[in-house]
Amino acid sequence: MAAVEAVGAYTLLRLGDDGGDTGAPGQFFMLRAEPAPAAAYLPRAVSAAWAGDGELAFLLDVRGAGTRALTEARTVSVVGPLGRGFDLAAGPSILVGGGIGAAILPWLRRRLEQRGDVRTVLGFRSPEHAVCAGIVDPDATVVLDPVLVTEPLARLLPASATVYACGPDRMLEAVAALCAEHDVPCQLAMEAAMACGFGACYGCAVRLDGTWKRLCIEGPVVEAARVLA
Amino acid sequence: MSSPDLHADLCGIRFGNPLVNGSGTLDALAAGTLGLGAFVTKTVTLHPREGNPPVRIAETPAGMVNSIGLANPGLDAFCADHLPRLGELGVPVIASVGGWSPSEYATAVARIGAHPAVAAVELNVSCPNVESGCIAIGTDAGETRALVERCRSETDLPVLAKLSPSVSDVAAIATAAAEGGAHGLVLINTVRGIAIDRDRLRPLLGGGGGGLSGPAIKPIALHAIFHARAATGLPIIGMGGVASAQDCVEFLAAGASLVGIGTSLFADPGLPQRMLPELGRLVRQHGAETIEDLVGVAHPRLSSSTRA
Ligand SMILES: Cc1cc2nc3c(=O)[nH]c(=O)nc-3n(C[C@H](O)[C@H](O)[C@H](O)COP(=O)(O)OP(=O)(O)OC[C@H]3O[C@@H](n4cnc5c(N)ncnc54)[C@H](O)[C@@H]3O)c2cc1C
Ligand SMILES: Cc1cc2nc3c(=O)[nH]c(=O)nc-3n(C[C@H](O)[C@H](O)[C@H](O)COP(=O)(O)O)c2cc1C
Ligand code: FES
């Protein structure tokens, strides 16, 4: 059974955990409302906001037919965990989230806190969107448009820390460039249009190592250097 | 009541069940065979192809359009790295081949056809997502006939021709493939389509146009299969919008001996496993003992003796 609640402009979807593998932070699931409406026959790729204590939670930016159907569904089919998640490094961490990219961070933060100091910088387009910062990290530094999240990030660098980032492509490019400049290791959780999520359709092409690769197989979390290559 | 026999036959190859994937809709090395009776490879071309720039897929009502652009590792890597591993899947492997000229196809068919892992070769003359070659051949009866003839002479394996529904007379192309010596047909590839970006009002896909697949194309697929079967009597792998066991028996009735699933695997990789028991029930319900008993029953004029 699905439970749905608003978190500012976003929606938290909590599914009962059926006891299956829930994976690790940064991995994703293909979710489909059942029965599927014709306008959303394909499932949607969504990262787990967290998993454990008998539930799988997702933070959704309800944009189109698929995400809307998920928030209205009695039953949701779940395929996953899929892809490669974050590679948790020892020592301090910096989490960077832009918009709905913040959805992937709560679980990651809980894990990283066991390994060292964690600082979080988040950027949103409005105060309503920023409400979810509370479930990512109550102590996060939050900026709103037109301020870019790279501003507070730049103030934290250089640092002997690992940077973990998720957000729009432009933000990820800027974060990757900034980390490269300061020689700070950086992992990016990327997005691409996905039909299957398990390597079957070749739809999720992203430029990695200078060529088109399937993000659902290589990622969605990749070393920033592979994007810059 | 004993459960019905779900074995299927095509061109002398025996399959544990009649379900296969559509070429380009499953990577069995990444995801396994999902309970299918055979594995069809993504179309392989002589040289490696990166594929088209994104966006490559877009959802449309009850389906999707794609412009993947035949991304594949190329013939050398396919034969050296993929085929040996595909040979261990435990189901018959059908290798899909594409190209820009008959000699490209012939080279690939000769190499792939000589590999012990391969049970049959499928000629993709129907990909809508490359500029020339491929579908340009498959929309012309004479070129289709000549290509099939050429490829037949390169291998002893069954040669199947995969045809496009985006032609004015699919039965004529099917007949040409039969005249060229095709052992069987695969119908249908995607239907030519285009998606417009709702905000920018420009083509959404990086390749411009694309191919439509999914439940939206099921009646088009049934039509093509029905008429290709009536025109040629060749065995057919039927596909296009299959999403349930009910769809599967309809495809068998229209003339398919094996039934392919593509887009619906994306939506539900557990589908084949769940379809099989239901398929068994439906076969029984229609008074049949085997899958073969239902093949072509929608054709009033076909008698079992015309079934190749
Ligand atoms: C690995 C991964 C993790 C994600 N995690 C989350 C998350 O935690 N929360 C969340 O709200 N969203 C997440 N998304 C994005 C989510 O999948 C899309 O927002 C969703 O597909 C949009 O669906 P819709 O039904 O709202 O919109 P619609 O307009 O109905 O559908 C969007 C369609 O466009 C395709 N599409 C085109 N471009 C993209 C793109 N850049 N990203 C995704 N799909 C695209 C999709 O395949 C889908 O079929 C994630 C995407 C990926 C790839
Ligand atoms: C993403 C995608 C990639 C495809 N790639 C190929 C391909 O490489 N070669 C080919 O012959 N057909 C290809 N097809 C066509 C399918 O094999 C199948 O013929 C078609 O999708 C209709 O079946 P469906 O409606 O069940 O998807 C592709 C289809 C899709 C959706
Ligand atoms: S989403 Fe289908 S290959 Fe990656």
Word description of this protein:
The complex is a heterodimer of chains A (229) and B (308). Chain A is an alpha/beta fold and 229 residues long. Chain A folds into two domains: 3-82, Elongation Factor Tu (Ef-tu), domain 3; 93-228, Rossmann fold (3-Layer(aba) Sandwich). Chain A is built from eight helices and 15 strands. Chain A has helices at 65-72, 105-112, 127-130, 133-136, 150-156, 169-181, 215-218, 224-228, and strands at residues 2-7, 10-16, 28-34, 44-47, 50-52, 55-60, 75-82, 93-98, 118-124, 141-144, 162-166, 186-189, 205-208, 211-214, 221-223. Chain A has a six-stranded mixed beta sheet with strand order 10-9-8-11-12-15, with helices on both faces. In chain A, strands 1-2-6-5 form a four-stranded antiparallel beta sheet. A three-stranded antiparallel beta sheet of chain A has the order 4-3-7. The longest helix of chain A has 13 residues, at 169-181. The mean pLDDT of chain A is 96. Chain B is an alpha/beta fold and 308 residues long. Chain B has one domain (8-53, 68-190, 215-306): TIM Barrel (Alpha-Beta Barrel). Helices cover 32% and strands 18% of the residues of chain B. Chain B contains ten helices and 14 strands. In chain B, strands 3-14-13-10-9-8-7-4 form an eight-stranded parallel beta sheet. In chain B, strand 9 (159-163), helix 6 (170-179) and strand 10 (184-187) form a beta-alpha-beta unit. Chain B is globular. Chain B starts with 7 loop residues before the first strand and ends in a 23-residue tail after the last helix. In chain B, 58% of the residues are buried. The model of chain B has no long low-confidence stretch (mean pLDDT 94). The interface between A and B is medium-sized, with 28 and 32 residues. Bound molecules: flavin-adenine dinucleotide (FAD), flavin mononucleotide and FE2/S2 (inorganic) cluster (FES). Flavin mononucleotide binds at residues 22-25, 42-43, 66, 68, 70, 96, 124, 127, 162, 189-190, 213-214, 217, 239-242, 261-264 of chain B.
